[in-house]
Design a protein that fits this description.
With 279 residues, the chain is mainly beta. Helix content is 11%, strand content 57%. It contains 4 helices and 14 strands.
Length: 279
């Protein structure tokens, strides 16, 4: 009986650090595959030279290089598997998970290409993980899932023949948050949703026909996740077999700065390198 009470208390205390639990469960798994073309080009594009409508998301200033109406729609498959090694060297593997992630981007140019607008729908963070109930991570997360979508409208303007600027809003909707944990026979289930706003902006500078430089900034997004917590205690009467309560936690999607340089040795070749800083 005393052990059972300890298990219940342990589960409840684990949810006091639920943000860390979500991090183990998958909140900070980068999932930035904006399109098949972007994947085939090594995920570069900050310098705005890959002629891909997903520049709406990566660096909106690059939209001025896209003429007329352009659109990309697709999805990618991801096979997720990971492991955890403790200080003693013992390794625990998570269950392999397969997921499909869709993407969409569209741009439209105006004023002979000097002005452009676009819309992109991405899922840059999230996914899911599954750890066994007897793993050392079970008190923090057994089943964890974060389904979120980032809707990003943006505009761009060519202020000079060699300089374009762009900015966009980010509406992040976390429409399904799941976190399960277990200590002994005590099982806890947390479900919730949340939504918030962020922004991103960028600039593309082309000092010559062969060189282009791009810089983009994505703000952090603070998400308040509101939901419901259910704990199956396994306690005998007169103690409650189940504890039900409302719950919330705060998640932060990190801000980042991206820098890209592109070199065009010929009309048919573009060499680009990007780097990112996350905080």
């Amino acid at each position: 009986m005393l052990n059972q009470m300890k298990y219940v208390l342990g589960v409840l205390l684990s949810f006091c650090m639920v943000s860390e639990s979500f991090a183990i469960g998958g909140a900070y798994i980068g999932n930035q595959v904006p399109s098949a073309r972007a994947a085939g080009q090594g995920y570069v594009g900050v310098a705005g030279q890959n002629e891909d409508p997903t520049t709406v998301f990566s660096n909106p200033a690059g939209m001025t290089a896209l003429k007329g109406t352009q659109m990309t729609l697709g999805a990618h498959w991801e096979n997720i598997h990971g492991s955890f090694k403790d200080d003693a060297g013992s390794q625990t593997k998570e269950r392999v998970t397969n997921v499909g992630v869709p993407n969409f981007s569209m741009t439209q140019s105006f004023l002979d290409g000097k002005l452009a607008a676009g819309l992109s729908v991405q899922s840059p963070f999230g996914l899911e993980t599954h750890w066994d109930a007897n793993s050392p991570l079970a008190p923090l997360a057994t089943n964890s899932r974060l389904d979120m979508v980032d809707v990003t409208p943006a505009i761009a303007y060519q202020v000079l023949p060699m300089v374009s600027i762009g900015a966009g809003a980010d509406y992040v909707n976390l429409f399904n948050a799941q976190l399960d944990s277990q200590i002994g026979p005590v099982i806890a289930d947390l479900r919730g949703q949340g939504a918030s706003w962020g922004y991103h902006a960028g600039v593309v500078i082309e000092p010559s026909e062969k060189h282009a430089i791009g810089i983009a900034y994505h703000s952090k997004v603070d998400l308040r996740v509101n939901g419901h917590l259910s704990v199956t205690t396994g306690l005998p009467s007169p103690y409650p077999a189940t504890i039900e309560t409302s719950a919330y936690t705060d998640l932060v999607l990190p801000e980042n700065v991206q820098f890209g340089y592109a070199f065009k040795p010929t009309d048919k070749w573009v060499l680009e390198a990007d780097t990112s800083w996350f905080h």
